[in-house]
Write a structure and sequence with these properties.
globular, 27% strand, 30% helix, single chain, alpha+beta
């Protein structure tokens, strides 16, 4: 993990950053992603969908520097070379969730095996953060498989939290396909509508052609 501080004197986004930080403006965008090809591919390969989804989203988040821009623990603004997913897992017995991270590597199978292992180890922990320490370079990802939605928003009072928050919902079966409600929440100081659109379009592209990257 490497953190790269931003120089406000040379950063092309300085004016925009200060404007939206002063207003503390965040926004969310929700879309329905056609995951029929991805779902069928995971079934054929015998993979669980959730780890595949985590790998896909992390790949997209790490593809653009704006998604990796935020404050470090020293209060410096900058961007990480890579972010890791801090994802939620549900414990049916206690009806509560935990948030854990699994390091993402370029090799999917290595990540998949580690993710499955982490889920099995920590799923019944009854703790919010059972796997410690939580890395500094994480973004939040969760799934609400009990309901679909057309919009989703988290109300965050910490104005210095700038990293993206990704939330998915229950599968929607229609027109012989499968759609996944997907919400992206970002801070306007580091991300614009262009970046939100780029995120959604890239997720859809990868979901439509899983054989190109999920090997």
């Amino acid at each position: 993990m490497r953190f790269n501080p931003i120089d406000f004197n040379t950063w092309k986004r300085t004016e925009t950053f200060h404007h939206y930080m002063n207003q503390n403006t965040s926004f969310s965008l929700t879309n329905e992603i056609d995951i029929h090809a991805l779902y069928q591919f995971t079934k054929q390969k015998g993979y669980r969908f959730y780890p595949v989804f985590i790998f896909l989203i992390t790949k997209v988040i790490n593809s653009h520097v704006n998604f990796r821009t935020g404050y470090n623990s020293h209060g410096e603004l900058g961007y990480w070379d890579t972010l890791e997913p801090l994802y939620t897992i549900f414990d049916q017995a206690s009806e509560s969730f935990s948030a854990i991270s699994t390091p993402v590597v370029s090799d999917f199978q290595t990540f998949y095996d580690a993710c499955i292992s982490d889920i099995e180890i920590y799923q019944a922990s009854a703790k919010l953060f059972p796997k410690m320490p939580v890395p500094e370079n994480v973004f939040s990802l969760s799934m609400i498989p009990w309901t679909a939605f057309t919009g989703f928003n988290l109300n965050i009072t910490n104005s210095r939290y700038l990293l993206p928050i990704v939330t998915a919902g229950k599968f929607i079966h229609k027109d012989d396909s499968i759609f996944l409600p997907l919400s992206l929440q970002v801070h306007h100081s580091v991300c614009d509508g262009y970046h939100a659109g780029l995120f959604m379009n890239t997720v859809q592209e990868l979901a439509s052609h899983p054989g190109n990257w999920l090997l």
